[in-house]
Amino acid sequence: MAMLEVNCLEKIYKTRLGGNQVQALWDVSFSVEQGEYLAIMGESGSGKTTLLNILAALDRPTSGSVLLDGCDITDLPEKEISKFRRDHLGFVFQDFNLLDTFSLRDNIYLPMVLAGKKPEEMKAKAEPLAKRLGIEDVLDKFPYEVSGGQKQRAAVTRALMMDPELLLADEPTGALDSKATDELLQVFSELHTAGQTILMVTHSTKAASHASRVLFIKDGEVFHQLYRGNSTNEEMYQKIANTLTLLTTGGDENE
Ligand SMILES: Nc1ncnc2c1ncn2[C@@H]1O[C@H](COP(=O)(O)OP(=O)(O)OP(=O)(O)O)[C@@H](O)[C@H]1O
């Protein structure tokens, strides 16, 4: 069984008064195997954020299901959702989502604080992880005292503190310069090699070219999927660029 199974997701946003409605997802199905590194791409408005919000249990679909290790997250009782997210998912966002008044260390400890872990346990978990991500020397600094790349690596460290089955990343390189982007993509590749399952939404062809599979969404449906096979990052980059051209020119990928 796949680690993540997304079945026939449909999402219709209704306005409060029930007048206009927008269909953001029509019929999205795909699965993710343990240890896969999946990138999701698509034009603005194609439904990527809607999909990610449903996968993150931040929103519920109109119909369809999302099974993580066999558990349907679209069906979780409201009071269990926060704990489920904390125990099973790690999140990385474009704008880091660090608390400005907390040091990087305290930001990183947060998921374990919320889970009621002991301080020694937090330190024992955080320090080797921070070292692996190259931020061990800035742990006691505040977000405004470090670079964007260091902030994002702190956010990744925080996301890994509870050993998530699935790391969800929303445009993780979107606010980074090219050097910090390369460093972050290197971190993601190393995590993938170590067995971490990653699902990343991105507009960046370069970021997606590091993934093991790229899924393209168009108008709320899966348009196409690219598998890395034995391709290098450069070859993947070219294949992604070609698919994006088809996507934006309205071509049929089977042509
Ligand atoms: N809360 C909402 N209420 C009504 N419509 C919404 C809502 N959120 C998104 N939509 C609509 O659903 C469609 C898909 O939006 P979504 O944000 O998922 O796209 P996206 O692919 O993430 O776009 P972007 O790349 O610009 O972030 C769009 O037509 C959008 O206007």
UniProtKB/TrEMBL annotation:
* InterPro entries per UniProt: AAA+_ATPase, ABC_transporter-like_ATP-bd, ABC_transpr_LolD-like, MacB-like_ATP-bd, P-loop_NTPase
Q: Which UniProt keywords apply?
A: ATP-binding, Nucleotide-binding, Transport
The lineage's top-level taxon is: Bacteria
The answer to whether keyword Ligase applies is no
Question: Domain ABC transporter: where?
Answer: 7-244
What molecular function does GO assign, one term?
ATP binding
Q: Per its UniProt record, what SUPFAM superfamilies does this chain match?
A: P-loop containing nucleoside triphosphate hydrolases (SSF52540)
- Locate the transmembrane regions by residue number: none
Return the protein name: ABC transporter ATP-binding protein
Source organism of this protein record: Roseburia lenta
